[in-house]
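Annex B, item 7. Sequence and C-alpha cells for protein A, then protein B.
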Amino acid sequence: MPTLRLVLGDQLHRSISSLDGADSGDTILMCELWDEATYVRHHQKKIAFVFSAMRHFAASLRDEGLTVDYVPLDAPLNTGSFTGEVARALAEGAFDSVIVTEPGEWRVMEMINGWRDELEVPVHVRPDTRFFCSLERFERWADGRKQLRMEYFYREMRRETGYLLTSDGEPEGGAWNFDAENRKALPDMVALPERLSFEPDEITREVLALVAARFGNHFGTLEPFGMPVTEDQARAVLDHFVTHCLASFGDYQDAMAEGEAFLFHSTVSAALNAGLLLPATACDAAEAAYRAGDAPLNAVEGFIRQILGWREYVRGLYWLKMPDYKALNALEADRPLPDFYWTADTEMACLHDAITTTCEHAYAHHIQRLMITGNFALLAGVAPDAINEWYMVVYADAYEWVELPNTHGMAIYADGGIMASKPYAASGAYIDRMSNHCAGCRYQVKKKAGPHACPFNYLYWDFLIRNRERLKGNPRVGMIYRTLDKMKPERIAEIEDDARAFLEGLKPAANWP
C-alpha cells in the first residue's frame, strides 16, 4: 500500500528526508493549520510567507508528478491541527504507514510521538538531514562537558566540514574566529545596497488576501510584501547578498543605523528556517566568494559562523535541554512586557527604531535583537515567558528551536549560563558606539542620572545591583562589580531611585497578542 508523507511548513525543500523514496503512488500531505498560525499570534508577514512558500512548494511537487493532498486554511473540512489532518487523510485513503521528518519544535515532536498510540498505522520519524550536525552528533559532543560553549563546537564543525581550512587542515588566516574585526560603526556616508523584493504572483496575492481576512488583527504590517517564497527566489537573495553585501558584512555586522533595517546583512534566515535554502548552499556560496577573492576573510568567517556555528549549536542545545530549559528563570525576572514592545511608542530612539523595523519587516538583525530589545528586557527584568513569546510572535524566522536558546540563553540569561558565559548587559555607551540612534534621542546618552539620562545607563547598574548575589561569582563580571563597589552610597541610591521611577512608569502590555 502507499505511504502518507507529511511535510511540515518549515520543511520546504525537495531533499527533506520525509520525501526520500517518494513516488506517484504515495500521497504528500501539507496543511495550513489554525493551530500553527495561532499557538502564538505570529506576525502577519510570517503567516503569509509560510503559507505562500508552502503553496509554491506543493505546486513544484505536483509538477514532478507526485500526489499532493494540500489542505488550505479555509478548506471546509480542515480540522485545524496536525493530528486532525493526519487522521482525516488516513480515514480517506488506504495507507500502510506515515512518514515525517523530525520537527523543529518540542511541542510538535510530543504530538507526533502521541500518534504511535493513536493511529492504526506505523509512524516513522526520520532525521532532518538538512543540518550539518545531527542531534545524536551534538549529544556526543556535549557528553561530559562542563561548559557547552559555541566556539568549541564551531571549531569541530569547521574541521568536519572543511570550511575555511587550509590544505594542512588549519584555519584560514591562522585563527578560528575574526569577530574582533567585525565591530565597526557604520560611517555616515557609506552607501547601502538595494535589496531584492519580489512582486507577489497570483498564489501569493491569494495568500495575502487570506491573511488580511483571517489574521488582520495580528502584530505587524502585511504589505508591501516582497519576501522570497520559492527556492529560486531564496537563492537569488543569497546570490545578491554574496555579490553586493558580503564584502562589507563583516566590518559592519554589529552596526545599527536609524531607519535602516538591513545594512549589509544577508536576510536569508527566514528562507533557511523554512527550508527554501539549505545551510550548506549558503556556506558554500560564501566560501566560494572568499576563495575567488571577492570577499574578505573576516566577513566570510563571520557569516559561516552564524550558520555553521550558532544555528547548529542552538538547535543542538535546544533538543539537549528541553523541555526543562524553557522553564528556567535564573535571575527570577518577573516584570510584565512593556506595552511599547507592541506599539513602538517609546522615546528611546534605539528601541523605537528596532521595534518599528520589526513591525514593518518581521525582521531585525542580530544586534538589534540581542543588544536593544533583548538587552532592555534583561536590564528591566522582563519575565522570560513574556519576552520569549514576543520574539516568537514578531519575527518571520522564529521557530522555538532557534528562538528559545538565543533569547533565553543569550539575551536574558534565564538559563544561568548554560549558553553564555556572562549576561550580555550593556549601557547606553554601547548603543552610542555602534549606532547613530543616540544623536536624535530625547534622552542624553552621556548623562548618567536624572530624568534626561539614557535609561540604559542607570538600568545597567541597577541590574547589577539587583543581581549581585546571583552574579558575583562569575569571573567575567568581577571587574564590573569591583567598579560598583567603589561607588559612593549616595550614587547607588541615585541609580536605584532613577531605575525605580522609570520602570514604575512603564505601561505593561494589557495582553500578549
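Protein B:
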Amino acid sequence: MEVSNLLTVLRAPARVQAKSRPDRSDQLSARVRRRLVTSLYSQPSSLAIGALATFSAAIVSAWIANLPQLYVAAVVLLLIAVARVTAALGLSPDSEGNSTATLELVYEIGAFSYALVLGCTAAYTILIGTQTQVEVLMVANALGYGIGVTARNAGRLTIAIGQLCLTCLPIALACFLTGSLGFIALGITILLLIPAMISIASNIFKVLRDSIAAAETSKKLADKMQVLARTDVVTGLANRAGLNHAMVETMMAVDNDSRLALIWIDLDRFKEVNDLLGHPIGDRVLSEVAKRLSGVSPEGGTVARFGGDEFIVFCPIDDRKDSEKLASEIHAEIMRPFRIDGERLEVRASLGVALLPDHGDDADTLMQSADLALYHAKVGGRAQTCFFDSSMTRDLVRRREIEGELRAALQRDELSIFFQPILDLETGRIKTFEALVRWFHPVKGELRPDEFIPVAEETGVIVTLGNWITAQAARVAASWPEDVTIAVNLSPLQIRAPGAALGIKNALREAGLDPRRLELEVTESLFVEDNHSTAAFIDELSEIGVRFALDDFGTGYSSLGYINKYPFSKIKVDRSFVSGAQVGRKSDAIIRAVAEMGTTLGMDIVAEGLETIEQVQAVKDAGCNLGQGYYFSRAVPDYLAAMLLAQERDSTSKEATG
C-alpha cells in the first residue's frame, strides 16, 4: 500500500462524519433507520405497564359511570395492548428475516390504533357529560399516555407525532364542541401542548439519530483501523498481527481431522538488493513476491509478511504430499527472474515447513517447528526446502546446552589456544602461527570447533570469544621472535559488532605486540554480507599496521574485486584444492593461477591442508611460497610452539657456526 493510499484511508473518517451529519430532509441510512426502529421494540414491559394503566382507568370509569360503552372501549384497548406486546415479543429486530419496513408497519398499526381508541374514549366521556371524576380520570390518562409515548417513540418521529395527535386531537375537539369556557381553555391548552411535544420529540430524535450515526462512523473507523493494524503497508498482505488472528480463526474453525501447513519463507541474501539497488527497489521486489505467493496459495489460506524478508503461508492441505507440492510451487514462483525498471533480478529463498497436527497442535508449537525447519534449510546451504523433524528439536536443545556451557567455559578458563605453524616452503622456517581455539570440557572431553563455533556465531557469543582468542594469541606471540607473526581468524559477526576495531587495538596494547605482527584472516562471505562495516574495520586497523589475509580462497564468492579493493597481504588456498577429493589437473591449474596472481601483486600464497611430501612439492612447484598442514605440525599448545621456534633457532645457529 502506498503512502498516498494510507493517507486516503486515514482521512476517510472525516468524510464519513461529514456524510453522516443530519441534513434538512432527514435522510437516514438503512442501518441507522434499523437501529431506530429496533428501539421501538426494546423493553416491551413498558408497553404492558402503559396498557395496564389505561385499561384500569377505562374499567374504573365504566364502573363509576355505569356505561357499557366504556367497558367495550376497555376491552378493545386490552385486545390491542395484548396484540402489541405479543408482536413486540414475537418479532425480533435482530432477525434478518424481519425487514425494517415490516417491523415499522406492524408497530405503526398497533400504536396508532391504541392511541386513537384511547383518545376517542376520553373525548366520549367529555361529550356525554359524565361525572367529573370520570372525565378527569380518562383525560388525564389519555394525555399522560400521549405525552409519555411521544418521548418513548421519538426514535421514529412520525410514529411519535401520530400517536400524540391521535390521542390529543379527539379530546381537544370534544372540548371545543361542549362550548364550555373551561373545556375550550382545556382544548386550547392541548393544542398548544401538541407543537411543544413535537419540538421535544424532534430534539430527542435528532440526538438519537446523531448518536447512532456517530456510532456507525466510529465502527467503520474502528474496522478500518483494525484492517490497517493487521495489514503490511508494503505488500498489502497480512502482517504478524494479521497472521496471528487468521491462524487462531482458522484453527478454531477446522475439525480435528483437518490438516494444515505452515510454510516459513526467507529470501536469501535479500539485504544485497537493498544495499545495491536501494530500498524502493527492495520494496517492489517484496511486493512482487507477495503477489506470486498469493497467486500460488490455495483457497482458504493466509499469506503474510512476517517481517523484513520473511513470509509465511498458512493453509489447509490434504496430506504431506500436498504440502510438498505446494512448497515446490512456491519455490519455483519465487525463483522466477524479476524484471524491475529493466533490471533482471534473481531471488532465492529457503523454506521451512511444519504440519498440523504432525508437528504441533497449536499455533505457537507449529511456528517453532517451522522456524527450526527454516533454520536447517539455511544452514544446509540455503535455497532449499526443509520439513520439520523431531531431531531438529534435539539439535536445538544441544545448541542451547552448548551455548550455556560455552559462556561458563570462558569464565572457568576451560578454553585454550593452540598454534599451528605456517612455514616458508623454500627455507622451511616458521613464518607464522595460526591461533586455533580448543575446548576441553571437564566431563565431555574435547569438543570440536565445528560443534561450538557455529553456536557461538548464532548466539552472539562469538564476539566475546573472538576478542578473548585475539587477546590470548597476542599475549603469547609477544614472547616470540619479532620476525614471527600470529594469525587469528575473525567471524563476520565479530567484525560487525560495535567497537570491533577497538577490541583488536586493546588486545594489542595490553599484550605489547607490534600491530604489524598480527594477521587477521577473513573469509569472502564477509564482503558479500556487509561491505560498509567491513571496509571501515579494515581501513582502521590497516592504518596502524595490522595485516589481512583472505582465508579459504576459492570456496565462496571468489572475486578479484575484493583483492583489488582491500589491502590483503596473503591469500590462503583452501585445503580442498590441495588434499580434497577433487584434486587433479583442474585444481593444480587453479593453484598455479592464484600463485601467479599473488606473485604479481606481491602477496604470500599459503597452501592449506598439506599432509604428504608429494603435496608439499606440488604446491611449491605451482608457485605457493607458504604451507600449512599436518605434514609440518598439528596445532600445539603455546609451550610447544615456543619449543618449535627454539629448536628452529638452535638448528639455524649451529648451521651458521658449523
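Comment on protein B: The radius of gyration is 45 Å.
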